[in-house]
Amino acid sequence: MWDIEDHGLLNESFTLTQLKKVLQQRRATIKTRLYLLLESGHAVRVGGNRKNGYQYKIVKLLN
Questions:
Q1: Which SS3 state, helix, strand or coil, does residue 48 take?
Q2: Which domain holds residue 7?
Q3: To 10 degrees, the CA torsion angle through 31, 33, 35, 41?
Q4: Nearest to 53 by CA among 29, 31, 24
Q5: How many domains does the chain have?
Q6: Any idea what the CATH number is for the domain that residue 26 is in?
Q7: Is 63 among the domain residues?
Q8: Domain contains 21
Q9: DSSP 47
């Protein structure tokens, strides 16, 4: 989560691919963590599509 904040993605929408480049982790690991954030309400999907990639946005920080 802090890597997202450090790279200026906190208030911006981002794709899974952009997040992968920032975090330097496996895609499966990032997807798992992102889906946990989505379920808890800390992140939302704001647009995009399956072909071009969904756009996500962090809406509240974890404590």
A1: strand
A2: 2-58
A3: -150
A4: 31
A5: 1
A6: 1.10.10
A7: no
A8: yes
A9: E
Please report the sign of the dihedral spanned by the C-alpha atoms of residue 32, residue 34, residue 38, residue 41.
positive
C-alpha separations of 33 from 4, 11, 20, 46 in Å: 12, 18, 12, 17
Asked if residues 15 and 48 have their Cβ atoms less than 8 Å apart, the reply is: yes
Each of the 63 residues of the chain gets a pLDDT tens digit; together they read: 556 666 666 778 888 888 888 888 888 988 998 899 899 998 899 999 999 899 999 887 765
What's the distance, Cα to Cα, between the start and end of the chain in Å? Answer: 10
Cβ atoms of 56 and 15 within 8 Å: the answer is yes
26 within domain boundaries: yes
Gap between the Cα atoms of 39 and 31, Å rounded: 12
Note if the pTM is more than 0.90.
no
